[in-house]
Structures are given as structure tokens and as C-alpha cells.
Amino acid sequence: MDGSGVLDLEAVPYGMKAVYRLTVHAVGDTKTIEEQTLLNLCRLATRETIRSEMSEWIHAESLSMPVLVARGTEAGKTLVATAGIHGDEYEGMEAIYRVFESLDPRQMRGTFIAVPVVNLPGFWQGVRSNPVDSLNLARVFPGSANGTMTERLAWELLQQVLRHASVYIDLHSAGRNYHMLTLCGYCTAGSQAVVAEQAARRSGMPVVWAHPSVSPGRTISATLDLGIPSLYTEAFGGGHARAEEIADYTRCLANLLAFLGMAEIPAAAPPRRETLFLSGSGDLDFAVNCSRGGFFVPSAALGEHVEKGRALGMIRNVAGKVVEDVVSPESGFVVMIRANPVVFGGELIAALSE
Known about the structure:
Elements: E1 2-6, E2 16-25, H1 29-40, H2 47-54, E3 58-59, E4 62-71, E5 74-83, H3 91-102, E6 109-115, H4 120-125, H5 149-160, E7 167-171, E8 178-180, E9 183-187, H6 193-202, E10 207-211, H7 219-225, E11 230-234, H8 243-259, E12 276-279, E13 288-289, E14 294-298, E15 305-306, E16 311-316, E17 322-327, E18 332-338, E19 342-343, E20 348-353
Parallel strand pairs: 1-2, 5-6, 5-7, 7-11, 9-10, 10-12
Antiparallel strand pairs: 2-4, 3-4, 4-6, 8-18, 9-11, 13-20, 14-16, 14-19, 15-18, 16-17, 18-20
Helix pairs in contact: 3-8
């Protein structure tokens, strides 16, 4: 089956691997998606080709997205993975495709459920948020059945997919505007924390970041409210999907399947490295922001440990004058740094961790 079946996870038979569709009611929004994509893309593809390829997932009053499901011959745990919550974060998409291709339902127990591209409108335009309503999908959970398109998407994803998880992992990366350390994060609060920490340590990611809490609106804040052990990932980003991060993400999913006793699939051995364990707030909405706009030139490196007051970079205006020196407000590791040099006042420049 290739994206033709309506999603009904309760009805998926044992020993089956298939692609289903999660559909969101989108009256009046589908025309907007098509028009914005055609206007904002500068490609060699013709308008007819773009419209034709989008039409596989857009219908008159709905938007669908693929849901990949592999159910073993025996009952067991359920690993749920999502990617493309932000449309410009690509590493997790390819990792999901690779793991799904590798799974043989006859040699697994439990169920693997993955949505490789959640935010299709953002994906088509290569942007973080949903261009239809300009909302950040990772800030509106649990969503609303009667809200805007992004809020309806969050609601349907939570109700039809995420709530089924024994363990949930949301595969993010730094997107096109930033670089981040490749990491796995989890929350230390609640009854889920023990399993979440065990899973994060088994992920094989080079950095494990523990947070005392998770801000509302995120995918994992919604699953944490349901008591589901929840993880997320970040990676280098910059609008790329580098081979090394894809390998890390693929290995991470394979390790989680093994951790849950679901399947053993081959994954390339990681390079020899020691895991770096970090702690602190993971809320990137409140990190190191600039006050002036212009052209950002970094002076700190990703992964570097900086002291309080250390220069992270400078901002020039378009005439070349340095209008701001961005300094570290505290000591810590640089877990994220701005990649796109074009900034406006108030934008995020860097994030630090203990």
C-alpha cells in the first residue's frame, strides 16, 4: 500500500507494513497552499509539474500526509517518530525512510509508526512555520479541532498518532537558519522520566540534554501530559541533510527499536566518541537574542565552552558599521549558533547549556 489507505491504527493487521494517510480538514486553505508555493518558488519545474505533484496530497477540502506503519507478528511496544514538524528540518525525514525500509514485520514485535513530513506546506516552501497561517506547529499543541489549519493539524496528529506511543521521539534539527549540536533531549519531570532517560542514553547520540521542564505548545509537552516517555533530537541543520547526521538519526531509531524489544536492524557503527551529558533549559525561544539587525558574524564555535561575557559575534548594519557585540550572558556550552547571517532585532543568535 502506498499512501492510499485512510489511517486507522486500531485496524492495522499484524505482520503488515504499509503507508497510510492522515487527513486534515482544510476548507479554504488548500488553494492558499498551492498559490503560495507557486509564487514563492523559483525552480526549473513548471507550474503544472509542481501543481501535479502537490495534488497527490492536496484535495479540494483537505490536506493529507503519509503515515508509515510497520506492525510485527506479535504484540509489543509502539515507537512513534515524527519529522518535518518544521518544514526546513530534513535529517529526520531520511532517517525514517531508511528505518521503515529496513523493517521486516515478520521479524519484529510491536508497532513502528512514523510521520516523515508533518508540515507539508512548510516543506514545499522550505520554511519553518506553516505558511498558510504563519503559525509554528511546535508551539500550538495540543491544537484544536476547530482552530486554524496548524492547530487542526496538531490536534489530528496528537489524537490519531502520538497518543498511541509507548515511547515518542520528535526528530528536529536546526533548520536553515541555525547550526546545532547533534543531540537527544528529554525531560526529567514526571513518571515518564526514568524510561525517557534510559531511552535517551540508549539513543547513541553524541550529546544527551536533560531538561527539568518543557514549555507548553510542543509536541513532547502534549505527549508528556499523557505520561508518554518523550524524546526529541536536534542536528547541524543549516538547510542541509548531511550524511553524518542522517546516519546518527537512523542509528538512534534503530537503537530505540532494540531498547523497546521491537526489532534488531543493522545500523552503521558510530565513530568512537564519548557522550556529552548536558542539563538546563531547552527553551530556545528564550536564549541569546540580538537587539539590532543587520549582518551577523560569529566568533564562537558550535560546541565551544564559553565564559560569561565572552563575545559570541558581532552585527554590522548594511553600511558595514558594527552596531552590536553579542556576548554570552552566562558560562556554558554553545549548543546552537546562527547560520544565516541576515538578522533582525530580537532574533535568536545562540543558545547555551550547562
